[in-house]
From TrEMBL:
SUPFAM superfamilies: Thioredoxin-like. Pfam families: ArsC. This is ArsC family reductase. NCBIfam families: arsC_related, PRK10853.1. The lineage of its organism: Bacteria, Pseudomonadati, Pseudomonadota, Gammaproteobacteria, Enterobacterales. It comes from Rosenbergiella gaditana. PROSITE patterns: ARSC.
Length: 126
């Protein structure tokens, strides 16, 4: 019988995102227990966003290829080069955050999904 321990990984994303779906499937198939936080359902507060920015930076978090980005005004897009403006855009439009974000209990973070990178990252979670 496999011993189940409390999750030491948290996955952040949006359930309708294809990449988040792939990541969740990978975690499930590999019996990796995580806590899942959906930005649309559970929201995104300033504290959480600041932790993600501290760990990854606004540039890595801001998804400039997605549908949400394309709906922003030209003024918002231009202002996003300023970290404070980018932070505000992410607070107002959580779907503009690149996903998935995987956070270990030690505070280390990854953004995006790559099975090789994730495997190494998760192995470091002891």
């Amino acid at each position: 019988m496999t011993q189940v321990t409390a999750p030491t990984l948290t996955l952040y994303g949006i359930k309708t995102c294809d990449t988040v779906r792939k990541a969740r499937k990978y975690l499930s198939e590999n019996h990796i227990v995580t806590t899942y936080h959906d930005f649309r359902q559970q929201g995104l507060d300033e504290t959480l966003l600041d932790q993600l920015i501290q760990g990854l930076g606004t540039k890595a978090l801001l998804n400039t290829r997605g549908t949400t980005w394309r709906t922003l005004s030209d003024e918002q897009k231009q202002s996003a080069s300023d970290p404070a403006a980018a932070r505000q855009i992410m607070l107002e439009h959580p779907a503009v955050i690149k996903r998935p974000v995987l956070v270990r209990a030690d505070g280390e973070m990854l953004v995006g999904f790559d099975t090789a990178v994730w495997s190494t990252f998760i192995q470091g979670d002891h």
